[in-house]
Specification:
Strand content: 15-25%
Largest sheet: 6 strands, mixed
Distance between the termini: 57 Å
CATH class of the domain at 7-112 and 154-221: Alpha Beta
CATH topology of the domain at 7-112 and 154-221: Rossmann fold
Number of helices: 6
Strand order of the largest sheet: 5-6-7-3-8-9
Bound molecules: adenosine-5'-triphosphate, magnesium ion
Helix content: 25-40%
Shape: globular
Radius of gyration: 19 Å
Order of helices and strands: EEEHEEHHEHEEEHH
């Protein structure tokens, strides 16, 4: 239980921020310091508030490839990442992570290709795919390949940065993911996760930052927009649908 995390906090340099992307995104210029939870830090909020831009900048400032993967991956397909990482400072504890992975929602395909490519090159060691479950990630469904990665590749003692990891997963798998997450945290893993999932967001040993109205605010699970919207829909789907459709006539 003693483990207290590798990453402590994130600061944004406030002076002389340039104009244009990403500083035209209100949430990304409005904070000074955010504390990381030693177990899980979530970022949630509407589409387009800047979650992926922020989490990618955190990953890049920690030395991950902007397109995702472990720190050994250095392929690029398109340099689309922002300059935000130049303006971030991450405070770290004395503990050093032994493992790490950045899962960038939009380029998981490229990570799968990179693993296949590296495995085609001559090498004396075991094939890389063995640590991802043994079956090419391209030969599995989107959900299956993510599940192989999560169940086989992540071993604990590391920092894992995940952008919408639920996007490929059924609700049942998302619940199973909570169990594996807890297991990895017992093995000294620290996570930073963006999510739209009311299931993942329920993980209790976590800080939730909601990005809305140009601010990044710490909220409790039940106060989060995700929780409130899903709850009101699932409690009264018929009432909500009737309201929606009546305004169409
Ligand atoms: N390379 C880019 N150049 C210019 N603008 C960009 C670039 N990438 C993203 N944006 C813009 O920045 C804003 C934030 O995008 P971002 O992908 O960070 O949102 P998000 O919160 O992750 O949304 P979602 O929930 O849909 O994944 C959006 O308005 C987007 O159009
Ligand atoms: Mg995103």
């Amino acid at each position: 239980m003693e483990f207290n995390g590798y990453l402590l906090s994130l600061r944004l340099k406030q002076e002389n921020l340039p104009n244009g992307y990403p500083f035209n995104i209100p949430c990304l210029k409005s904070f000074e310091k955010l504390d990381f939870h030693p177990n899980v830090t979530f970022f949630t909020g509407e589409n387009g508030v800047g979650k992926s831009t922020l989490i990618e900048a955190i990953a890049v400032s920690l030395g991950f490839n902007a397109e995702g993967g472990s720190k050994n991956f250095n392929f690029t397909s398109k340099a689309t990442h922002s300059e935000l990482h130049h303006y971030l400072t991450i405070s770290k504890s004395f503990r050093k992570p032994k493992d790490g992975f950045f899962l960038r929602g939009e380029s998981f395909y490229n990570v799968a290709s990179e693993i296949d490519k590296l495995d085609e090159e001559p090498s004396f060691g075991p094939k890389l795919i063995e640590s991802y479950g043994g079956v090419s990630l391209h030969e599995q469904s989107h959900g299956q390949s993510f599940w192989s990665l999560f169940m086989n590749r992540f071993g604990g003692s590391g920092v894992y940065i995940l952008d919408e990891p639920e996007s490929a997963l059924s609700a049942t798998k998302q619940i199973a993911m909570l169990s594996k997450l807890d297991n990895l945290i017992d093995k000294n893993a620290q996570f930073i996760i963006t999510t739209h999932s009311p299931i993942l967001l329920a993980y209790p040993n976590a800080t939730i930052y909601e990005m809305a109205d140009g601010k990044i605010t710490k909220v409790k699970y039940e106060e989060s927009e995700i929780y409130r919207v899903y709850k009101s829909f699932l409690d009264h789907p018929k009432r909500i649908l009737d309201n929606l459709f009546s305004s169409n006539t």
